[in-house]
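Note to self: the last two entries modelled the partners one at a time, which told us nothing about the interface. This time every component goes in together.
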Amino acid sequence: MLRVDTYPTAAEAARALGPGTRFLGGGSLVMIELNYGASDIDRIVRTSDPELKEIRVEAGRVHLGALVSMSDVLNSRDLDFLAPVAQAVGGPAVRSAASVGGNLFAPHPYGDFSVALLALDAMVQTADGVSHALEGYLADRSGLVTSVSFAAPAGNTFAFRKVRRVRPKGASVMSMACRLSRSAGRLSDVRVAYGAMGPTAVRAKAVEQALEGATLDERGIAPALERATEGLDPPTDALASSWYRKETAVVHLRRLLLAEDAR
Amino acid sequence: MSKTPVTFRLNGEDAAAFADAGSNLLDFLRRSVGDLSPKYGCGQGTCGACTVLIDGEPHLACITLAETVSGREVRTTGGLANGPTLDRLQEAFIDKFAAQCGYCTPGMLMAATALLDKNPNPSRQDVIDAIGGNICRCTGYEPIVDAILEASRNTRGAA
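The predicted structure of the combined assembly is written out below.
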């Protein structure tokens, strides 16, 4: 018999998770399973922990509670740089439900917010008090997420791009995000991440390597474009084939990197 | 299946009913409360036919756990008209032929209500963004966008 248990703290909710349970955050993923009669769920676990709804910016570092919604992100004056990312998730009603933590679990081709977090070198905090690099966390997605945190990008160094066939709402053919830090006029400590190019958001490490020390212009990014999909095996789905994703990624990467007006 | 008592405000009035564990707000409103105005479309948060407002924000009732509306204010299309007097949006939808089969209309109306409550003077792009999560397979959307803009103009004219 299905039941719903709500705990006052994330730590208690985490302890209640086990076989046959699901943690319900905003609901945009788990409710679909319930609506379609998921027979493997006999217990829904929730938490009313207010910390999971917090948005804090302290000492240049942004902390987003796992239950912060995309609408919350859009409404925060501190998170203007993330507005294009949150805006890219569903329509307004989906954004009221879709949460930062839930986005880490969104199946392909969803999860655009995770792409941005990966490019921002986000850390994931879980209810057991452990911090994980997001890239590592995405590999097994184990542990109840309580928050994510990352250094606020300086100036206009962060950019995001979503490629879709349907506007204004549409799933990703691919999404891309980058953090283009510079040192002495050259790119340094660059992060580039893709969405819908693998089972989860992935870093484009070959591109990152090629951009290190480069100048942000046509000539400077040329070697990175040649390695746009190196090491990646994009999935084929109803939106695009693996071949199409690989062939067009270079075009969108170029637009992402050189879109000076967006940074 | 266990049941949870849920008390909330529905269209400005107190409401209370029992929600089955794990049931969504759409089923709860339609089967337990008796408000048939939000429609079941996809059950996966894709079509927008079940859009309602919770504390003024648009939500998809089909992916909202029913018991989470305890103590909150829910608005549905069923509460838009004041007796025989239609809401400005409903009037505009009629005037602009914005409903054909009508199945998406309750969701469209609530998405538009959320927009106009916050932004009484929306641009065409604002309207398109606001109904971006609502699917219509009849009208081609243009009459709906026109109707929402018309309603916003009527509101400003009346103010």
